[in-house]
Write a structure and sequence with these properties.
The complex is a heterodimer of chains A (about 325) and B (about 325). In chain A, about 75% of the residues lie in helices and about 0% in strands. Chain A is built from 13 helices and no strands. Chain B has about 325 residues and is α/β, with parallel strands linked by helices. Chain B is built from 12 helices and 12 strands. The longest helix of chain B has 18 residues. The chains are: A mainly alpha (about 325), B alpha/beta (about 325). Chains A and B meet through helix 9 and helix 10 of A and helix 2, helix 4 and helix 7 of B.
Chain lengths: ~325, ~325
């Protein structure tokens, strides 16, 4: 287990280096001279331009620029937002908790709905409960998030007045208000993923329920709920975890439309604003952070696999 | 004396898209304590379905009729919770595929402990001690260490030993073994059969052995039931059946066993194939493949008739001695 972790973490380093190369390359491909943009009014003065280039190391060869940039990134310096006039790292750190909260809430909702629904539908295969679960899942996958979001605002905020229609309150400020402002967008995001999780849980469980060890468990005289929840589910979870990690990664990279509908100031909104304003350092910073989140989630999924499936421990 | 396990007119049918298919038809037998009965036949003859019907482990689209009595109790009419108490407690089962019959996600020890704790009041530590004792008893080396290992670390033979330990751990009165050695190497087969015989003699557990292999039958069984196409065609004690088989199908099966003391150009086979349960032939179901077939066989279902003491066969021509004389 310890050896596996060391090896697995070791594999992350080349992945992250590759990601950093891509992001750095992207930076080079972008149109426009950063020095010209930063110089502003004084763009006619070659001395000022030279000074800015020297400050930003733009006068050095590319590979040196990359190494210098990489060291800065490793120290947490992601550059400076041209538009917000603040360090990118600071901007991201402000938005990250919002996206984390929204993403995790959506993920919990998705798991709480998707996995039990998948299990029920597998156990009651080809029976009414299965048809209903499949129908609801299809509706969940097919419903656009922004539409469901608007409908929920209409119902719960406009008609019933139970929840605020938009805005965000940080958990640290007032946790009740915070949950009230995020529960609708989290639900909207969660239902779509719940439907996907349900479909995958169902197919993995249908397969697991046909395995010989399930028959053995029944032959031992175990109650059906133990056969399902312990013997079959444990083995069915591996593909569900893979999918869950990917879906959580998508959630944590920002939900552009949903954040727009509910005016939640998360990653999605940050990226959209940055792209429209050509605030490239922010775009790069967010891409880098999202890439790291994905890599870490995959690592977490791998660790979960071997906790669940002992055969992989010796692979 | 009431038999331990009594099966009367057991019939199993499956509801399929193409209508109802009757896989097992009128199977009857009884098993006394400590006896070992082999149910023999080719793939698809209904022997495994019979075993699963006794355990009530058939798929939901199956329907079992007739009667199965375990120590006088009607198994087919038992409630689900009563059935769970019987399964693993009074009647246990081991399967053909040791590689896939254990759950890969749990240690072998946990899987045995689970069976013990389900049927007894043993505390976790008592159950652990019992499980280790059973692992030792089925001759698994270093049982304390093996207890904490996962099934994938064990060979097929070892896994089948674990299955036997798990099945025997609650001291059932009947053990159903469905092709327990088919997936194993020949040398391991002999060890497992020896182990089963020994455990059955020591504990008094009766065994129903499902197999297609007459060699396995000879190793373990007291009595033999031969099935063909969902029906019992012959039943006798091991000796009688091997010496004087009275059904042409049994004779064919014997002929298909390779022998070392006779030189033959090629192995004898039974011509044709087992009919499909969707289209059983009328009359005797073996008639299309039978070398002794006469017109009556194709229209009349032969009843199981006594052909000798404790020996029944379902053939209108039995006893077959006159054919032996002719040949």
């Amino acid at each position: 287990m310890a050896g596996f972790l060391v090896r697995r973490v070791g594999q992350i380093i080349p992945t992250l280096l590759f990601v950093s190369l891509l992001i750095f390359g992207l930076q080079q491909l972008m149109p426009g001279d950063p020095a010209l943009i930063l110089a502003g009014e004084e763009r006619g003065d070659p001395l000022v331009l030279a000074q800015i280039r020297a400050e930003l190391n733009l006068d050095r060869p590319l590979h040196e620029q990359y190494v210098l940039w990489l060291f800065k990134v490793l120290q947490g310096d992601l550059g400076f937002s041209w538009r917000i006039r603040e360090p990118v790292a600071k901007v991201i750190l402000e938005k990250l908790p919002v996206t984390l909260q929204l993403g995790l809430m959506a993920f919990v909702i998705a798991c709480l709905i998707g996995i039990p629904a998948g299990i029920v539908s597998a156990v009651k295969k080809d029976q009414p409960a299965d048809w209903i679960a499949n129908g609801v899942a299809l509706a969940g996958i097919s419903t656009p998030n922004f539409w469901l979001g608007i409908m929920m605002i209409l119902l719960f905020s406009v008609h019933l007045g139970w929840l605020p229609p938009s805005g965000y309150v940080a958990l640290t400020v007032d946790w009740r208000q915070s949950l009230a402002t995020t529960i609708m967008p989290a639900f909207v995001l969660g239902t779509g993923i719940a439907a996907v999780l349900m479909r995958h849980t169902r197919s993995a469980m249908v397969q697991a329920m046909n395995q010989d060890y399930v028959r053995t468990a029944r032959a031992k005289g175990l109650a059906e709920r133990i056969v399902v929840a312990k013997h079959a589910l444990r083995n069915a979870l591996v593909p569900v975890i893979t999918l869950g990690a990917l879906e959580l990664g998508t959630l944590l990279s920002g939900a552009v439309l949903t954040e727009q509908v509910f005016t939640i100031p998360g990653f999605g909104k940050l990226v959209v604003d940055a792209v429209f304003n050509r605030d490239y350092p922010v775009v790069q910073g967010v891409v880098l952070v999202v890439a790291v989140i994905y890599v870490l989630l995959n690592l977490a999924a791998d660790v979960l696999y071997i906790l669940i499936n002992p055969r992989l421990r010796h692979a | 004396m009431t038999p331990l396990l009594e099966v009367r007119d057991l019939a199993v049918s499956f509801a399929t898209d193409e209508g109802t298919v009757r896989a097992v038809d009128g199977v009857s037998f009884s098993l006394a304590p400590g006896r070992r009965l082999a149910i023999v036949g080719e793939s698809g003859c209904g022997k495994s379905v019979t075993a699963l019907a006794i355990m009530r482990l058939l798929a939901p689209n199956a329907r079992a009729q007739g009667s199965v009595r375990l120590e006088g109790e009607d198994v087919l009419a038992a409630s689900d919770s009563r059935m769970r108490a019987l399964r693993g407690g009074r009647i246990a089962m081991i399967f053909q595929e040791p590689m896939t019959s254990l759950n890969p996600a749990f240690t072998v020890g946990d899987q045995i402990v689970e069976a013990i704790r389900e049927h007894t009041d043993a505390s976790p530590s008592e159950a652990r001690a019992q499980a280790i004792a059973w692992l030792a008893r089925v001759r698994i080396p270093a049982p304390e260490r093996r207890f904490d290992e996962y099934p994938h670390r064990l060979s097929g033979g070892m896994r089948q030993r674990v299955m036997i330990a798990m099945a025997m751990a609650c001291r059932p009165s009947v053990l159903i073994a469905d092709e327990p050695t088919t997936a194993l190497d020949v040398t391991i087969q002999a060890q497992i059969l020896g182990l089963m015989r020994e455990l059955s003699e020591e504990t008094g557990t009766a065994i129903v052995l499902i197999t297609h292999d007459l060699g396995v039958v000879a190793e373990l069984a007291h009595d033999v039931l031969v099935m063909y196409a969902g029906r019992v065609v012959e039943q006798a004690s091991l000796d009688t059946l091997f010496r004087t088989p009275q059904h042409p199908y049994t004779v064919g099966l014997m002929g298909a066993v390779p022998r070392l003391d006779e030189e033959v150009a090629r192995l004898a086979t039974i011509e044709g194939t087992v009919p499909s349960p969707r289209a059983w032939p009328p009359g005797c179901r073996f008639a299309p493949r039978c070398p002794f077939v006469i017109e009556r066989c194709r229209t009349e279902v032969p009843p199981l008739a006594e052909v000798g003491p404790g020996h029944v066969a379902a053939c209108v021509q039995a006893p077959l001695d006159r054919f032996a004389a002719a040949a």
